[in-house]
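Posting here for the record, re: zinc ion.
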Amino acid sequence: MPIDFHRKAEHQILPEEQQYLYFKMLEEQLKMIFTTERLRTMPNWPFTKEDGSKCTAEKLAEAGFYCPNPQEDPGSLCCFLCQKELDGWEPMDDPMEEHRSHNARCKFVKMGFRDSEDMTVKEYMKLSKDISRLKLDEMEQRILKEHRSATEKDAEELRNFIEPNRSDC
Ligand SMILES: [Zn+2]
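Prediction output follows.
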């Protein structure tokens, strides 16, 4: 039985529903540039100003953090830009200090945790570009990985097809 490699290769290019998921993911990520959107991901954050905590949801959002998975992992927060993930937060942690000490090279840290309200259009465009590039790299790595394993499978099939016939030559 001959193998139609051309047809298979065409089929492996990113399916539409997957493309849609990636764009959705990028859209969600871009929203996190806004402090209010980041704050919205931490509705039940346990430490508040009223109980004297420094590590409040407001301060975390201002420091660039949001919660990627509020339902399943509400304690694990991530920087919207450098993607640094931190958990085990304590009431007296200073979110900006923590961000700085875990990744001083983050561009958001370097631009002094500028609030989205005070950003210039140029700064906003720059951040959007960085985030898009990051997500596209991630997507590319995933596609390459999937493509590689599919190619390995094709090579395996080809080997199995050729090798039994080799002794005939
Ligand atoms: Zn960061």
